[in-house]
Amino acid sequence: MGFSHAPDTMKRDTYDTDGDQLVDVAEGLRETGGPTTLTAGAVADGAAVTRSGTTYAGVARAGIDTNATGFGDGTAGHRPVYRAAAWTEDNTIFVSTITELTAAIGAASAGDTIQMAAGTYTLTNAIGALTIPSGVTLKGACIDQTIITQDGTLADDIIKNEGSSVGSYGIAAAALWATQGFTDTAADAGNISDGDLLFINDPASGERLATIADGDGVAGTGEFNFRHPLQVAFGATSTVDVYSTYYEDIEISDLTVACEAVATDSGINFLSVKGLVLEDVKITGPNSSNAEPALQVIVGVDVAWRNVILEDLDYRWLLSIASSVDLDVRGYQGSGSSGASLSFLNRVNYSTVVVQSNGGTADEDVRVDQSHRNDITVVSSANVADALELNSSDDNVYHVTARGGVDDNGAGNVGDVT
Question: For a surface tag, which of 40, 44, 70, 386 has the fewest beta carbons within 10 Å of its beta carbon?
């Protein structure tokens, strides 16, 4: 095998000359005449690495031809091999146990990546839920290889980030510009700043919107535009909740969350978030029909779910009070929350939603309430009366390929059903 860098530079920037991926394996690894036990400072051949599991004492970084030698699970090029203890390099914290994972989460700051080795990470009630700091990426080795679960004692979600609002502020009717924005009035001077995460609520109509304040930030006289105009003109009883605590720019990828033992709590639960990416994430069940959804985000802007898989769950996911969302979700099996919907969009605006559903039984595959100006695609083989139900939801575009049809109880919705 050949490398594009000299051996003395191999520790950091090693790529195969035939274009294989960067691989982290044992420092000084080379092929020898026979297998040698991989202990601190020892040299071993590829065969020893292939047979020895996923955790090694004294393992550091080097390069290896992924076409020539397997590692970790014995399959060529699948995942890195790690030291027996957590270590950090180039803003990446490498972990292989639940103790190392919780410590890394506690120590991580914006810009860091927590790289989890393949294996099962089991939470207990004493450990509690995992809360990912803003700006941090949590990355596994691969779906079904890195698994986060719990031992049956955890009385909480598995991954849980909850922000809080600093308070609700009234908007005088004269200060609300129909659907476009509002003025930060003297009575509420200084409570709203440019870039704040906002939750607009009109109790009279039930309309709600998550948005970001876009304005000059001048307390008392500041004029704020909404990133997107409201679907309806909010009334004189409207309020603005400003989230003083929220999470932003979090990425979770390449792992499985197993919530088989969770009766009522979620696998992943975010409240108040700006910038959330879930990519190549799987959540498995079963959960009960009266459970919290396996995946939920409430009050979110700039949310992306890419290749998110939900398997054997009666209540798959909930997205509520959100805008600027891009979802690509696949669901398998389940019987619907309380016999009703497998999945739920609630007060979601200006978003793109793609749902693939295989199996499962419910009244609706995807229920949509008070959600406007979205592009929604549902491809479903589920045993449902309606693949898509639109309630008080207007000006959406939909594309449905399914056994069930579309129950449209809104206005201005257009689409096709095959």
Answer: 40
